[in-house]
Structure formats: C-alpha cells, structure tokens
C-alpha cells in the first residue's frame, strides 16, 4: 500500500468523521432539551415556555439540517476509500449501518418534518409525541452507529468464511460492551454539550442585558442544572471504559499509562500472533488525546459545580456578569473533550481497523495518490464550508433571541409573556 494514500485516507476519514461527530453531539443533546421543554410547555400552557421551545428548537433544526449532510458525505468514504474494510467485514458491521440509515433518514427525518410543519395543525399531545419520537430515534441512530464502531474496536459475534467475516451471533454484536459503554458515554456527552450550549447562549443575552431576561434566566438554569448530572454520567461510563482497556485493547492501555514493560510485552505477543510489524499506536495521538480529554473534564467540573450552586440565586443568574463570561467561554469545552476522547478511542487501536483481524493498511482502497489527494481536497473543503455555514447560522439566530423566531410562530395563538417584557431595570 502506498503510504501517501494510506495517510491521506486516514486523515480524510478522521477529519470528516470527527467533524460529523461534533454536529451529532449537539443534535442529540438539544433534541432532548427541546423535548423536555415542550413537555413542560404542554403541561403548563404558558406562552413563555412555548417561546423557549421555538427558540431552542430552531437552533436544533439548524444544527440537524447541516449535520445530516455531513453524515451523507461521510458515508461515501466507506466505498470510496475503504473498500478493503467493507469487503472483509461489511457483512457484520454493515448491517447496523444500514439500520441506522433507515432510522435516521426515514423515521427520524419524517417525524422531524412533521414536528416542524405541524405546529398549530396537530393537537398539542400529538405534536409533543412527535418531538419525543425524533429524540428517541436520534438515540437509536447513535446506538446503531456505535454497534458498528464497537465491532471495529472489539470484534464479537462473527466467524470467518471464505476469507471474509460473516455474522454468527447477532445478540453478541448488539450487546457488545465496546458499543454499550460507548453509547452511555456519548449520551452523557451529548447532554453535556447541549447544557453548555444552552448556558452559554443564555449567558450571552443576560450579559448584554437583553429585554428577555426571564426567558434566558430560565434557559440558563436548565443548561446549568443539566450539565452537572450529564458530566457525572459521562465520567462514569468513561471510567468503566478505561477499566476495560487492559482486557479489550491491552496495547492502548499500556500506552495510555506509559507502562514501558507492558508495551514491550504486548508488542512481543502480537508479533508472535500476527507476524512482524509495529503494533504500538502513536503515543502523541493516543495519550495526548486522553490527557486533553481529562483536562477538559477537569475544567468542566469546576464550571458545572460552581454553576450548579450559583443557579439557585436569582441575582447571580441575572447579574453576575463574570459568571456569564465564564459560561460563554466554556461552550467549546465539551466539544474539545469529545473530539479528543474520540481521537484516543480511534488512534489507540492502530494499526488495526478491525482490532486483531484487519490492519488499516489492508483496508484502504487501491487508489492512486492523485485520486486520493483530489478526494481529500474535495471532502475537506466541503466539511470546512459546512462547519462554517452551521456555525454562522447558529451564531446569527442565537444572537437574535426569541423575538425573531419563525419556527411554529402563530400570531393568533400567542402573545408575548408580560412577565418577560419588564424593563431591564429589574436587573
């Protein structure tokens, strides 16, 4: 295999998959937040709560719409750049990818469309059920993706037949610990990302003393009160995953803990089992990703614990401007933690694409260097543009506040909540 093609293919997939992952994290978390807000609004019947659903729902729809495009683009790479992987193991991990496509593109997208265009056309309980279907199918979609990824990291439930892997035990694949633990970790991380996002946007408006002080005061509390338990959930599943590394991927565990003797022992064992080769992953990416993730976790711990206490004090919520600045600055922290954790997970299993079964160099398509460079340039440019568009739209609509929200607006049905229109002097 041409090393230039291999390096470009790996870098391309890392950039596109990592970029898509960042969209997914906010989408999963915001879907849950919006569903919870709409449940609250449906039971309370208050216009302010309905406005919260529309405002945060609009930001969710923007992120979902752009994110779904990145997912489609990323899928092309399996056939374009990684035909060796799909040929060898596609019968096992490809089934879960196919189910995910059905869930995401048919069920989730259909009900999201009904939710977007169904305001004031369906009954309030029917409309509420739609956003919960969207939320649950979003998590189902994530689960099926992690079933595929879990198989690559810890292959189970297969048998070799004719030089290829075929599905032998579907239950083992669906209950793979590498998938289930990662799913819990991602669930917590998505809620954490949404909590920091909601807190940061709300803090921006409170810092600027916008008129919708009650709206964003309540939103800030939702984000802060969500962030701490989400952080604990993420840490719990992350800790359990670290404890399983020595069993599932001993080399990654040894590199992470800088255990030189264990690295040499595992290297010798793998040479004996799989033949000559370098089975030690890059310490810079593996250990570096893990350390950056842990640093981000520590910073988020300070922010969430302090915020959890401060959120009980009304004056702090509305007037503590230094806290508002911290919350705005902390918005990128969950993204940093999740992408560095993803790098740790994926880079640490090298040189395997299917751990212990298929090396990365054997999974790459037989493309020329020129074709791979062209593919890399196109995919990278497209993802940069999509990320820029998504970021620009989120910033634009987040800065506008709830007054310009078009999602679900009906002048006949709702007026502004008078409690949210009091002058800024109330601060």
What does this structure look like?
This protein is mainly α and 427 residues long. The protein has one domain. The chain contains 15 helices and 4 strands. The strands form 2 sheets. It has a two-stranded antiparallel sheet with strand order 1-2. It is globular, with a radius of gyration of 23 Å. Residues 411-427 have low confidence and may be disordered.
Task: Give the topology, please.
Layout: H1 3-44, H2 47-80, H3 83-117, H4 124-153, E1 158-161, E2 164-167, H5 170-174, H6 177-207, H7 213-248, H8 250-256, H9 260-274, H10 283-310, H11 314-319, H12 321-329, H13 332-347, E3 352-354, E4 358-359, H14 360-363, H15 369-400
Antiparallel strand pairs: 1-2, 3-4
Q: How do the SSEs run, as a string of H and E?
A: HHHHEEHHHHHHHHHEEHH
Rg to the nearest angstrom?
23 Å
Q: Which structural class best describes the helix and strand composition?
A: mainly alpha
Shape: globular
Percentage of residues assigned to helices: over 70%
Unreliable parts:
411-427
In total, how many beta strands? Answer: 4
Number of helices: 15
| Structural domain tally | 1
């Amino acid at each position: 295999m041409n090393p230039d093609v291999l390096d470009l293919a790996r870098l391309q997939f890392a950039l596109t998959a990592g970029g898509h992952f960042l969209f997914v994290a906010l989408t999963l978390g915001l879907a849950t937040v919006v569903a919870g807000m709409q449940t609250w609004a449906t039971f309370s019947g208050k216009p302010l709560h309905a406005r919260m659903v529309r405002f945060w729902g609009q930001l969710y729809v923007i992120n979902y719409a752009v994110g779904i495009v990145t997912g489609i683009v990323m899928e092309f790479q399996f056939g374009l750049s990684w035909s060796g992987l799909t040929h060898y193991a596609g019968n096992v991990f490809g089934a879960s990818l196919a189910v995910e496509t059905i869930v995401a593109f048919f069920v989730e997208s259909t009900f999201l469309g009904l939710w977007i265009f169904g305001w004031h056309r369906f009954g309030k309980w029917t409309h509420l059920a739609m956003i919960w279907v969207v939320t649950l199918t979003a998590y189902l979609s994530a689960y099926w993706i992690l079933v595929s990824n879990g198989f690559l990291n810890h292959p189970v439930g297969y048998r070799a037949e004719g030089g290829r892997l075929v599905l032998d035990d579907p239950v083992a694949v669906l209950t793979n610990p590498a998938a289930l633990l990662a799913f819990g970790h991602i669930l917590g991380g998505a809620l954490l990302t949404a909590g920091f996002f909601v807190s940061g946007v709300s803090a921006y408006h409170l810092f600027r003393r916008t008129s919708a002080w009650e709206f964003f005061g309540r939103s800030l509390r939702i984000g802060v009160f969500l962030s701490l338990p989400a952080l604990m959930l993420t840490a719990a599943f992350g800790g359990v995953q670290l404890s399983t590394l020595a069993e599932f991927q001993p080399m990654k565990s040894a590199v992470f803990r800088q255990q030189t003797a264990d690295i040499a022992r595992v290297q010798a064992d793998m040479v004996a089992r799989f033949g000559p080769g370098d089975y030690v992953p890059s310490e810079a990416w593996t250990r570096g990703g893990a350390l950056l993730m842990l640093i981000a976790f520590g910073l988020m711990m300070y922010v969430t614990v302090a915020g959890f206490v401060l959120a009980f004090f009304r004056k702090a919520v509305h007037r503590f401007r230094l806290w508002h600045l911290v919350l705005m600055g902390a918005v990128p922290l969950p993204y940093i933690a999740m992408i560095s954790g993803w790098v740790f997970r994926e880079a640490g299993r090298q040189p395997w694409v299917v751990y212990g079964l298929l090396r990365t160099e054997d999974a790459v398509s037989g493309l020329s260097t020129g074709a791979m460079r062209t593919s890399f340039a196109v995919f990278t440019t497209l993802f940069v543009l999509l990320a820029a568009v998504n970021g620009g739209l989120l910033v634009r609509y987040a800065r506008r506040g709830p007054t310009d929200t078009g999602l679900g607006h009906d002048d006949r049905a709702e007026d502004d909540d008078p409690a949210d229109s009091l002058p800024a002097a109330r601060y």
